[in-house]
Write a structure and sequence with these properties.
Layout: E1 5-12, E2 18-26, E3 29-34, H1 53-61, H2 64-69, H3 75-81, H4 90-107, E4 124-131, E5 145-150, H5 155-169, H6 186-196, E6 201-205, E7 212-213, E8 216-218, E9 225-227, E10 230-232, E11 237-238, H7 240-254, E12 256-260, H8 268-278, E13 283-286, H9 294-303, E14 308-311, H10 313-316, H11 319-331, E15 335-339, H12 349-356, E16 361-364, H13 369-382
Parallel strand pairs: 4-16, 6-12, 12-13, 13-14, 14-15, 15-16
Antiparallel strand pairs: 1-2, 2-3, 4-5, 5-6, 7-8, 8-11, 9-10
Helix pairs in contact: 3-4, 7-8, 12-13
Bound molecules: 2-phosphoglyceric acid and magnesium ion.
Length: 384
């Protein structure tokens, strides 16, 4: 495949911040891609745009001569081209890569996921029901996400659960990813979820780095506690040992299957301790802990920190590194979960990457054009 032209421009993402869209022209037409951004970003994520988004727009235009001279006949050619965009920032690199993938897939008359694998395995959906943390205002839960795992063929069940919660509790509106904002304690939110769905596998993304400072986890609110028949005001702060105990309590009480970022992003030892206690039948998931970075996963695996990891290509800023990360996770027997971000675009390529990289779970919201584009694409892939 030969590229005839490349251009870039700024577009709006789902919360009206700027994102980058890259267009690639081949003999077959124009292929466009864009890349999301995070709000609760991990400290170890790469920069989205080096020198700012305007610099990325200019830099990508400067690629014209090099890209026209390159022959792209396989996924490997596209991955090696990432070297050429290395200094532009992770989102710039990925927007070019994704557009090249779409153009090559079109030329080869296959869907994008088939550039990676012949074997089609559709991932389970991990849908956000309730949202809080930094994805909502102060009047919300401390934890960022309350999630329900479902087979895609059971999507109806999650939709009706989402609507029921909204009907009874939805008066505070939605968070950045379309989850219901509920002004209750985290434990109460789990009670609500369990009241409406007694059987599904549920979980949370605590995004704990967002409420951890100087050795202390600080909660927005806590359920009232009882001692000796008296109601006492609970403490809003926890040290690491108390945090681990609280996570274990919630896990057992509400039968949680999925727990993401329960501790600070640098606390590999705390993750290891928690995993040794609950990791047999629970996914202890590192998102900000690993930031899709193979080196951090190697460190985690050595210590036994977590047993699952989030995959967000723009945390590490290239598809080559993302693939390396997914392969390492497979080697270490860590479950992978590919995830949307809180500042999404309408690009649906996440679904193709989920199937292409054979990732067993996709974390995604249920409403908003930027989320449903990916769910709808997943259903389209099921029929391909
Ligand atoms: C997360 C993500 C997506 P953000 O923490 O898992 O839900 O949030 O994109 O804000 O980092
Ligand atoms: Mg997370």
């Amino acid at each position: 495949m030969k590229v005839k032209d490349i251009s870039a421009r700024k577009i709006l993402n789902s919360i009206a911040n700027f994102s980058l869209e890259v267009s690639i022209t081949t003999k077959d037409g124009i292929f466009k891609s864009s890349v999301p951004a995070g709000t609760s970003k991990g400290k170890h994520e790469v920069k989205e745009y080096i020198g700012g988004i305007d610099a990325a727009v200019k830099n990508i235009t400067k690629l014209k001569r090099t890209i026209k001279k390159t022959n792209f006949s396989s996924l490997k050619d596209i991955l090696s081209f990432e070297e050429k965009t290395k200094g532009y920032g992770g989102n710039a690199t990925l927007a070019v890569t994704y557009s090249l993938l779409k153009a090559l897939a079109y030329e080869k008359k296959v869907p994008v996921w088939k550039l990676f694998t012949k074997k089609k395995k559709i991932p389970m959906l991990l849908n956000k029901m309730i949202g809080g943390g930094v994805h909502a205002g102060e009047e919300s839960t401390t934890f960022q996400e309350f999630l329900v795992l479902q087979k895609p063929t059971n999507l109806k069940k999650n939709i009706s659960l989402f609507k029921k919660i909204g009907k009874d509790w939805g008066f505070h509106g939605r968070d950045l990813e379309g989850g219901w904002v509920i002004n209750v304690s985290d434990e109460k939110a789990l009670q609500i979820l369990r009241k409406y769905d007694k059987t599904s596998k549920i979980g949370v993304d605590m995004a704990a780095s967002e409420f951890y400072h100087d050795g202390i986890y600080k909660y927005k609110k806590m359920s009232l506690a009882r001692t000796d028949g008296k109601i006492v005001m609970p403490k809003l702060t926890k040290d690491t040992a108390e945090q681990i105990r609280f996570v274990r309590y919630l896990k057992n009480r509400y039968d949680m299957y999925y727990i993401e970022d329960p501790l600070d992003e640098n606390d590999f030892r705390g993750f290891a301790e928690l995993t040794s206690r609950i990791g047999k039948n629970t996914l202890v998931v590192g998102d900000d802990l690993f930031t899709t970075n193979p080196e951090r996963l190697k460190k985690g695996a050595k210590l036994g920190a977590a047993n699952a990891c989030i995959v967000k290509p723009n945390q590490v800023g290239s598809l080559s590194k993302t693939i390396e990360f997914v392969n390492l996770a497979k080697k270490y027997k860590y479950t992978t979960i590919i995830s949307h971000r809180s500042q999404e675009t309408n690009d649906s390529i996440l679904a193709d990457l989920a199937v292409g990289l054979q990732i067993p779970i996709i974390k995604i919201g249920l409403t908003g054009g930027e989320r449903v584009s990916k769910i709808n694409r997943l259903f389209e892939i099921m029929g391909e």
